[in-house]
Amino acid sequence: MSYPENLLYTKDHEWIKVDGERGTIGITDFAQSELGDIVYVELPKEGDTFAVHETFGSVESVKTVSEMFMPVSGTILEVNQALTENPELVNTDPYGAGWMIVVKIENPSELDSLMSASEYEDLINEGKER
Amino acid sequence: MEKIKKVSRHITQNEPLLFERSRPGAVGYKLPPLDVPAIEPQEVIGSKLLRNDDLEGLPELSEPDVVRHFIRLSTWNYATDLGMFPLGSCTMKYNPKINEWAARLEGFTESHPMAPESAVQGSLEIIYLAQELLKEITGMAAVTVQPAAGAHGEMTGIMMIRAHLEKQGNARKKVLIPDSAHGTNPASAVICGYAVETIPSDKRGLTDLAELEKRMDDTVAGLMLTNPNTLGLFEENIEQICKLVHERGGLVYMDGANMNALCGITRPGDMGVDVLHMNLHKTMSTPHGGGGPGAGPVAVSATLEPYLPVPLVVKQGEQFRFDYDRPDSIGRVKAFYGNFLVLVRAVCYILSLGPDGLKLNTEAAVLNANYLAHHLRNTYEIPYDGKIMHEVVFSDKNQLKYGVRNGDIAKRLIDYGFHPPTMSFPLIVPGALMVEPTESESRQELDLFIDAMKSIAREAEENPDLVKNAPYSTRIGRLDEVSAARNPILRWHPSQE
User: Fold this and answer.
1) Does domain B355-484 have CATH number 3.90.1150.10?
2) CB contact under 8 A, A39 and B407
3) Which of A87, A127, A130 sits opposite B486 (nearest CB)?
């Protein structure tokens, strides 16, 4: 299980990579491995605006459908069109080619409540210990 | 395969599609010779109204062709009449044959929904009885039997909550739903125009009271709660939960999917619930799926009674009649009066058992789930190990280290002659295997299931590939579910290849 240091994490297993006011968002390695083979990804349209914690899309695996939540408030700048044809990219490269959306971050202070890589790793290990 | 004690023989014959069986000119009827002069149809109805090639390509078959096709398909199926069907949250109990006898009585099957009330008093009495019996069982003020199934009942219930709040001047914005809920709960709330907020479960797997306290404000229309919840645990704080929601002007919807753990023991009405649906095809032994449609009657408190769908059946003196005079009603939610013949079966079940029998069934259902939990606890993890009610949720955690997942265990169970349990639900348990034996299973059958589960755990340890490639006893082995979902190929006519 990998937890890249340069990302921030939510307890719902999304990650965000911050680059100025641009934030790239996806789901974590843990999330993709729990879901299993992903067969469909539903994403918003460019220009859509979402508040923090709001649902911006869903991932469907053979097992289940899971919603994805906004780590921050923002407007959608880009959507990963490649996932329409190749949803398996989320399994093979969750932090790279399997990214979901790029947003314009409205309120950078919301980033403060997100977890670091080590905090997120602790959360996952805690869950395993349960 | 020697250790497999219980294997049902599986018919392995292949069966083509009806379209592939088609033989030009084959028919399933024979008409007598015409005793009037033949005429061209267009002379009578005009060519404009005449259908031309719409029917081209429909299969042409004889009666035995059709009967054999469907009977063969039916032999590929699994049913409670064949063995244990431990599909958690679905209450796949045995459906007593006396229910079928009652539902086939001519007085019921031949009664017409448009018949005058005086001509169908017996059928009206059944609807009335269903309302009254379910009122008593749930402890609620009134019941509608219209909704066709559970999710339909949920929608009906939330519509009534909305109607009530609207009448008070503010429909509010949100519905709170615990993270262990059935997926239909949030869907029903959204259909009725509410936003959904998720309440996390606490460490024991119960609704987190502190979190509810925090979120329950004047924007919240109500809470949708399953009790016992989908972890098979009784929400011990239900009274406190109802009180809190009521104090802040909300209402409590109880998903009655798990009423098989409560029936005859305790009543949602006494807990403070405002509205709930029951699944007659679960708790009251009416068939699931192909055996007949479902039924999701909704019971309400006195607060919500005015909003019930029309018509209700009422009794006046010795006569039964439809009551449409309900000005605050949300209206009709289904054509006519619900799935009537399902109600006949449910009434038959309830009356043939009586109060003591219903209670005994509930006790046996809870005992059976606890028996399985007791014997499998050391083999499979029980992540939320509280007071288990009518079902128990295991996980694949102990087997995961051999690379064996819940889906593999479920598929291997097929080889042992059992229907797989519910998988990967509730969502808060990774690798969930949700087992609901119901009261229908004898100790012998439960022991066979325990042996099978233990045997699979040993196989997972000693020969994981055996489990990972199961099943072997079915017509078709392990399916490639991923390719099927990513690139579905659907056809109902002969392949072009």
Assistant:
1) yes
2) no
3) A87
pLDDT for B4: 57
Closest to B277 measured CA to CA, from B248, B238, B309, B249? B309
Q: Does position A127 have pLDDT exceeding 50, yes or no? A: yes
How high is the pLDDT of residue B147? 97
ipTM value for the complex? 0.74
Smallest Cα distance from B195 to chain A, Å:
11
Cα B485–Cα B489–Cα B495 angle in degrees, nearest 5: 160
B84-120 confidence digits (pLDDT tens): 999 999 999 999 999 999 999 999 999 999 999 999 9
Q: What fold is seen in the domain B99-352?
A: Aspartate Aminotransferase; domain 2 (3.40.640)
Residues in chain A within 8 Å Cβ distance of B485: 37, 39-40, 60, 62
> How does DSSP assign B366-424, residue by residue?
HHHHHHHHHHHTTTSB-SS-SSB-S-EEEESHHHHTTT--HHHHHHHHHHTT----EES
pLDDT band per the 50, 70, 90 thresholds, residue A65: confident
Whether residue B486 and residue A39 make contact (CB cut-off 8 A), yes or no, is: yes
> What are the residue ranges spanned by the domains of chain B?
99-352, 355-484
Q: For the purposes of burial, counting CB atoms within 10 Å of the CB of B479, is it exposed (0-12), middle (13-18) or buried (19 or more)?
A: exposed
Collect all residues from A whose CB is shorter than 8 A from any CB in B.
34, 36-37, 39-40, 60, 62-64, 66, 87-88, 127, 130
**pLDDT score of B42:** 86
- Residues B406-433 have pLDDT tens digits of 999 999 999 999 999 999 889 889 899 9
| pLDDT of amino acid B471 | 95
The answer to whether B278 and B299 are in contact (CB under 8 A) is yes
CA distance B141 to B16: 53
> Could you give the CA distance from residue B274 to residue B305 in angstroms, rounded to a whole number?
10
DSSP assignment of B309-376 equals PSPEEEEETTEEEEE---TT----SSSTTS-HHHHHHHHHHHHHHHHHHHHHHHHHHHHHHHHHHHHH
pLDDT along chain B (497 residues), means of 10: 51 77 90 92 86 78 92 85 93 96 96 95 98 98 96 97 97 95 94 94 94 96 96 95 97 97 97 98 88 88 98 97 97 94 97 98 98 98 94 96 96 95 90 97 97 98 97 88 87 71
Question: In chain B, which residues touch A (CB < 8 A)?
Answer: 383, 405, 407, 423-425, 427, 430, 481-482, 485-486
> Which of chain B's residues have a Cβ under 8 Å away from the Cβ of A87?
486
Length of chain A counted residue by residue: 130
Closest in B424, B481, B482 to A64, CB measured: B424
* CA distance to B43, B56, B59, B236, per residue, from B50 (Å): 10, 14, 21, 66
pLDDT above 70 covers a percentage of chain A that reads 97
Residue B15: name the closest of B58, B82, B78, B65 by CA: B65
Q: Is pLDDT of A129 > 70? A: no
CATH of A8-108+117-124, one of 3.40.50.1000, 2.40.50.100, 2.40.110.10, 2.40.340.10: 2.40.50.100
Contact A63 B423 (CB under 8 A): yes
Residue B162 to residues B144, B206, B223, B244, B248, Cα–Cα distance (Å)? 17, 26, 12, 19, 15
